[in-house]
Design brief:
This protein has 241 residues and is α/β, with parallel strands linked by helices. The protein has two domains: 58 residues, no CATH class; 112 residues, RlpA-like domain (Barwin-like endoglucanases, Beta Barrel), CATH 2.40.40.10. It is built from six helices and six strands; from the N terminus they run αααααβββββαβ.
Length: 241
């Protein structure tokens, strides 16, 4: 009886030992198996973090956040290159090139003459210096100059345009003349520069000499653009005196 109990106790002890050994082995095996798995998981996480890091770095490097929209994005660069921001709007934009709508593309209206006709013209240069028979300073009070004409009757400072063979000069009545020739139909005295320009488009040899053999030009067209407020009479030219 005691032997049977002892045998059972030994068998139980053996079974318990085997169970303990199995548990220990299983635990050791499980721990050994967990270690590479944990290492693998950690590697994946690290790799994932690196991958995420690459994406973040790439995202920044491609300029979508840092270089792109916030600092020097495509829109800003394109605007600067295309001149929309630098050349267009700020430097030479609409403000500089703005043209009123009512004048854009339109030619300034032609000024109509208040009187037009034709006459024979002579030339003179009388600055009151006493040279070549100068008689005194121009009657209109302005010094002798290019574009100063003499009329026997028109109001002083009348604006006149003269044309001959397609060449034109606009000047003003600043003196009286010519004298006796006005009774023979010479109703305009032109400065030497205007006279020579009407002849051939060139400049005179001197103020007192046109440099041509022409002393008179017949058929000079005149247009009164505006009457002056000086002494004289409006209308068709009349001989002096």
């Amino acid at each position: 009886m005691q032997q049977r109990v002892l045998d059972k106790a030994l068998i139980g002890t053996a079974l318990a030992g085997m169970l303990v050994a199995g548990v220990a082995a299983g635990t050791a095996h499980e721990a050994a198996a967990d270690e590479p798995t944990a290492h693998k998981v950690t590697a994946q996480q690290v790799t994932g973090q690196k991958a995420m890091g690459q994406q973040v770095t790439g995202h920044k490097a491609t300029g979508r956040q840092v270089t792109g929209h916030q600092v020097t994005g495509q829109q800003v660069i394109e605007q600067q290159v295309a001149g929309k921001k630098v050349t267009g709007k700020k430097v030479t934009g609409k403000r500089d090139a703005k043209v009123p709508r009512h004048t854009a593309g339109k030619v300034a209206p032609k000024r109509h003459a208040v009187l037009a006709g034709s006459t024979t013209a002579s030339y003179f240069w009388d600055d009151g210096s006493g040279v070549n028979g100068d008689t005194g300073a121009p009657a209109g009070g302005k010094p002798m100059q290019k574009g100063l004409f003499a009329s026997p009757s028109w109001p002083l400072h009348t604006k006149v345009k003269v044309t001959y063979k397609g060449r034109s000069v606009t000047g003003f009545v600043g003196d009286r003349g010519p004298g006796e020739p006005s009774h023979r139909g010479v109703m305009l005295d032109l400065d030497t520069y205007t006279f020579r320009h009407l002849v051939d488009g060139k400049k005179p040899k001197s103020k007192y000499n046109t440099g041509t053999s022409a002393g008179h030009l017949k058929g000079v067209k005149y247009e009164i653009l505006s009457w002056g407020h000086g002494a004289g009479k409006k209308g068709a030219p009349k001989p002096l005196g």
